[in-house]
Specification:
two-stranded antiparallel sheet; SH3 type barrels; 5-stranded antiparallel β-sheet; about 25% strand; single chain; globular; Arc Repressor Mutant, subunit A; alpha+beta; 3 domains
Length: about 210
């Protein structure tokens, strides 16, 4: 991760938390040393970021930093709450974290009178006790391949447990309560197919573009 990207990531982590975060926790999430975190915090302070705290105690970011003004209606706030709660519980790991980030970003720019709708809302997205999908791959790589229009090589196990290697052109990813499904053109079958992500045992994104991208 580039240093500039890491500084932005630090700001976002602090924005997401409502209590002080220790350098050790920050270092663990970003995969760097605590010494690096201390240096990065000094850089953020020098750049004018409203970070409060100190080594050994933890850091917090004052609300409202580095976000453009925006306004939502109560219905829009509740739509964000339900949608992000659903993703936080059912999305892949990276998308679930992104859902939490969305709520944090929206929360810091809301007027005080509207914040309870987001943080103390009475709307929920329960899973009704259904089993959550467990992926054997990093689904965010598939989402990246879809965005970039790249092919992917997968090893897929069907319902009977038989495995096959496929080259696919992924163009969609559907999120259900109990499964995530990739929609793709399959070169092996010469047709459109869908693949459950919990049955994909291996994934490699190819540098070759699919025919969906000119």
């Amino acid at each position: 991760m580039k240093r500039s990207d890491r500084l932005l990531a630090l700001v976002q982590i602090l924005r997401r938390r409502r209590r002080p975060v220790t350098a050790g926790a920050l270092a663990g999430e970003l995969g760097v040393s605590e010494r690096t975190i201390y240096r990065d915090m000094d850089s953020l302070l020098a750049a004018g970021a409203p970070v409060r705290g100190e080594a050994g105690v933890g850091y917090v970011l004052d609300a409202g930093y580095d976000l453009p003004p925006m306004m939502f209606t109560p219905d829009e706030i509740e739509a964000i709450l339900v949608g992000m709660n659903w993703l936080a519980g059912r999305g892949d790991t990276a998308l679930a974290r992104a859902a939490e980030d969305v709520v944090a970003k929206v929360g810091v720019v809301l007027p005080e009178r509207l914040r309870p709708l987001l943080f103390e809302g009475a709307l929920f997205a329960p899973d009704m006790g259904r089993a959550r999908p467990v992926d054997g791959i990093d689904v965010s790589l598939l989402r990246g391949a879809i965005r970039a229009g790249l092919k992917a090589t997968i090893v897929y196990a069907d319902g009977a447990g038989a495995t096959s290697e496929r080259v696919i052109w992924p163009f969609g990813l559907a999120y259900f309560d109990a499964a995530r499904v990739v929609i793709a053109w399959c070169e092996l079958r010469g047709d459109f197919r869908h693949f459950r992500t919990d049955r994909i045992t291996s994934l490699s994104v190819c540098p070759e573009r699919s025919c969906w991208i000119a």
